[in-house]
Design a protein that fits this description.
The complex is a heterodimer of chains A (183) and B (144). Chain A has 183 residues and is of the alpha/beta class. Chain A is built from 6 helices and 7 strands, in the order ααβαβββαβαβαβ. Helices cover 34% and strands 11% of the residues of chain A. Chain A has a 5-stranded parallel β-sheet with strand order 1-6-5-2-4. A two-stranded antiparallel sheet of chain A has the order 3-7. Chain A is elongated and about 70 Å long. Classes of the chains: A alpha/beta (183), B mainly alpha (144).
Chain lengths: 183, 144
């Protein structure tokens, strides 16, 4: 059995494992060094699920919602979506296909299905562009909300937030909903 | 002297090495973008995505150089096999779940989505990685 090259004869490990560990160690050391030396400065332990993320604990004032928003789309979590919803400052926009809304949507939300966006943007005619807008769709893996947010931003809406937990998270938490067909 | 099989394996080895080296080099330019793409796969807790984004490009570069030059080749084929298996698994998983994301295979800059072509590509790479690992592992054992 070949146990590594001569320099490492003391360790009783198969050669490929030993060499593999050397390669991994090299990559970790160089990777971390490069992260800082190149200016990337990614925190080793990531604290937010997505970039451009912020959250509120209490109902924000209008000035809170518009003061910190920067050029890229901002993501918010369930807690923040709830307090923004309670505050009444924002218009909620549902990016899901029209049919999905039959089973419920966030209370007061406007439906702009991303798959039909050109025809449906008129729903926002009465909404001024400095109104905060919260866009959502199904949940974390749905990209329609992010794409719709980009469209809204290009239309001039300056304070657009994406609630990435989406309908799934909102409904599972028992927060206020509407349905299209009242019993 | 060298059999046809050995020449074929050397070619596969170097091709995979070049692919990995290019892949790694293309990622180090945009670690943030790569971290976001890793996040899109939802395969690891988001807290760990940055560590992976920091290490994986250099792992690819190191294994790529190993496969091309033959330096620490046993480790290279071993880690290479693990890498290609992980990539194959990630692409299959994202494809099966219908996640719409950039592959991230050659960094955040090149626009390659996760689709059937990517899946077939990943399978091909994995097969190549298995072949070279088995070949060099067997040769290692026969020599002792």
């Amino acid at each position: 059995m070949l146990y590594g090259n001569n320099a490492f004869r003391i360790l009783p490990m198969p050669g490929f494992v030993k060499e593999g560990l050397i390669i991994i160690l090299f990559s970790v050391v160089v990777g971390i060094a490069y992260n800082y030396l190149s200016g990337n400065n990614l925190p080793l332990w990531r604290s937010t699920p997505v970039k451009n993320f912020f959250s509120f604990n209490e109902e924000p004032k209008y000035s809170d919602l518009v003061s910190r928003v920067i050029k890229d789309t901002v993501f918010i979590d369930l807690q923040t979506a709830k307090v923004i919803h309670d505050s009444g400052w924002a218009v909620f926009v549902d990016a899901r296909p029209q049919d999905d809304l039959r089973y419920g949507f966030i209370k007061g939300a406007v439906s702009i299905p991303y798959n039909d966006v050109e025809n449906r943007l008129t729903e926002l005619l009465h909404v001024p562009v400095d109104t905060p807008v919260v866009v959502y769709c199904d949940g974390a893996e749905c990209n329609a909300s992010i794409k719709l947010a980009s469209v809204l931003e290009s239309m001039g809406y300056r304070y657009v937030f994406v609630f990435f937990g989406g309908w799934n998270e909102w409904q599972n938490s028992g927060l206020p909903v509407d349905t299209l067909y009242k019993q | 002297m060298k059999s046809k099989t050995e020449y074929a394996l050397i070619v596969i080895r170097i091709v995979l090495g070049v692919i990995l080296l290019v892949a790694g080099l293309s990622k180090v330019g945009d670690l943030n973008g790569f971290a976001e793409i890793i996040n899109n796969y939802h395969l690891i807790p988001y807290q760990l995505t940055n560590i992976f984004a920091i290490v994986i490009p250099w792992l690819e570069i190191a294994v790529g150089i190993s496969l091309i030059t033959g330096f620490l080749l046993r480790g290279g084929t071993f880690i290479g096999l693990i890498l290609f298996f992980v990539f194959f698994f990630a692409v299959s998983w994202a494809y099966a779940r219908g996640i719409d994301t950039e592959c991230g295979c050659f960094g955040a800059l090149l626009n390659q989505k996760v689709n059937l072509i990517k899946l077939i590509e990943s399978t091909g790479y994995l097969i190549g990685a298995v072949l070279i690992f088995v070949f060099y592992w067997r040769r290692d054992h026969e020599q002792s």
